[in-house]
């Protein structure tokens, strides 16, 4: 039986189309027959997940999405079939989440649990809703935006209150205040310029003062050995002073002061010769009388010497009466009356 060319072309075309479909599905991760290790995950929102999207565990791709199908007509649950490329021990309390990538496709991330019981082919893994990068950013930005809205509303209320308070007179006063502030600013600039000129003028004096300070410090540095020697001598003197028996000296001084106080106390009392001499009025009176009598005797010897010493051969004894009191200036007449005339 001879096959014509048209039949051959049709058969080759069918075979090519079949191979093309099988190759395309193979590149997408699907095979003609559903065989291998499959696990399933249920989501309310697949977030753009598509067939052949990768499945990761700890950053390593372990499979791909094989197909997506609705669980019911309400589309409230979508079942995702995951074909595992490797035979792995995945704990049955692991969690599968969908990660969205703004620059690429979505992927499934399985976070391993800690149970010792592992998922088998055909089991359903637990799922968790992952908001992703955009979701996290949205959750973080939303409260800030709400706060900004409240702040803007408050600022608008404040501005309205300010506009209601500021009448034209108050606004004019504010303008005058701003003008005065500008004037003050210009004055400050002028003062700064003047101060800069003064500092420039006084720069030489300041440099001279700094030079003097440097000279003083240089002298101190050159006399460092002398200063050190002086400090050493002071330290030695202070050490000697600290070793001196100051307490014993003070005790001796206290003893001497106590003795002196006792002596002064005895002098102040009527005990002893010195005490009686200083405090007995009778002794003072007797001494005064003795002194007066001695003065009277001396005056009488001076006025009437013949009564006590007589060397006259022919003359008689002096007949003048002895003195009973010291002679004063007014007693000159008495002295002349008692004089004996000369024998010549």
Give the topology string: H per helix, E per strand. HEEEEEEEHHHHHHHHH
The rounded Rg comes to: 68 Å
Secondary structure category: alpha/beta
State the shape. elongated
The biggest beta sheet is recorded as: 7 strands, mixed, barrel
Q: State the share of residues found in helices, binned by percent.
A: 55-70%
Q: Roughly what fraction of the amino acids lie in strands?
A: 5-15%
* Unreliable residue stretches: none
Our measurement of the CA-to-CA distance between the termini, rounded to an integer number of angstroms, reads 227 Å
- The total count of strands amounts to 7
The chain-level mean pLDDT equals 78
Strand arrangement in the largest pleated sheet: 1-4-3-2-6-5-7
Count of helical segments?
Answer: 10
Outline the structure in words.
The chain has 344 residues and is an alpha/beta fold. Among the domains are: 1-33; 34-130; 282-337, no CATH class. The chain is built from ten helices and seven strands. The chain has helices at 5-27, 132-165, 168-201, 203-222, 224-243, 246-268, 273-279, 281-303, 305-308, 332-337, and strands at residues 37-43, 54-57, 60-70, 78-84, 95-99, 107-111, 124-127. Strands 1-4-3-2-6-5-7 form a seven-stranded mixed barrel. β5 and β6 (107-111) form a beta hairpin. The longest helix has 34 residues, at 132-165. The termini are far apart. The mean pLDDT is 78.
């Amino acid at each position: 039986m001879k096959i014509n060319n048209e039949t051959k072309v049709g058969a080759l075309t069918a075979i090519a189309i079949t191979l093309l479909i099988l190759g395309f599905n193979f590149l997408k991760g699907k095979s003609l027959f559903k065989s291998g290790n499959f696990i399933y995950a249920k989501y309310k929102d697949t977030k753009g997940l598509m067939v052949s999207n990768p499945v990761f565990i700890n950053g390593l791709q372990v499979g791909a999405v094989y197909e997506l199908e609705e669980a019911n007509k309400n589309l409230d649950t979508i079942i995702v079939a995951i074909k595992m490329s490797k035979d792995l021990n995945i704990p049955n309390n692991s969690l599968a989440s969908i990660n969205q990538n703004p620059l690429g496709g979505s992927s499934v991330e399985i976070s391993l649990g800690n149970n010792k019981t592992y998922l088998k082919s055909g089991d359903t893994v637990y799922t968790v809703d992952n908001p992703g990068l955009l979701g996290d950013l949205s959750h973080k930005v939303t409260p800030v935006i709400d706060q900004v809205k409240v702040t803007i509303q408050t600022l608008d209320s404040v501005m309205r209150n300010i506009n209601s308070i500021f009448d034209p007179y108050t606004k004019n006063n504010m303008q005058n205040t701003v003008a005065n502030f500008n004037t003050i600013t210009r004055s400050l600039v002028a003062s700064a310029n003047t101060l800069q000129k003064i500092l420039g003028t006084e720069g030489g004096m300041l440099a001279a003062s700094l030079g003097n300070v440097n000279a003083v410090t240089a002298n101190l540095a050159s006399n460092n050995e002398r200063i050190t020697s002086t400090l050493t001598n002071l330290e030695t003197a202070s050490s000697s002073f600290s070793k001196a028996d100051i307490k014993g000296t003070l005790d001796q001084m206290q003893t001497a002061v106590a003795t002196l106080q006792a002596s002064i106390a005895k002098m102040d009392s009527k005990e002893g010769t010195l005490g009686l001499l200083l405090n007995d009025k009778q002794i003072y009176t007797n001494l005064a009388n003795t002194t007066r009598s001695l003065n009277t005797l001396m005056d009488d010897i001076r006025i009437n010497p013949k009564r006590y010493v007589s060397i006259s051969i022919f003359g008689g004894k002096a007949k003048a009466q002895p003195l009973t009191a010291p002679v004063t200036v007014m007693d000159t007449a008495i002295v002349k009356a008692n004089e004996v005339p000369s024998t010549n």
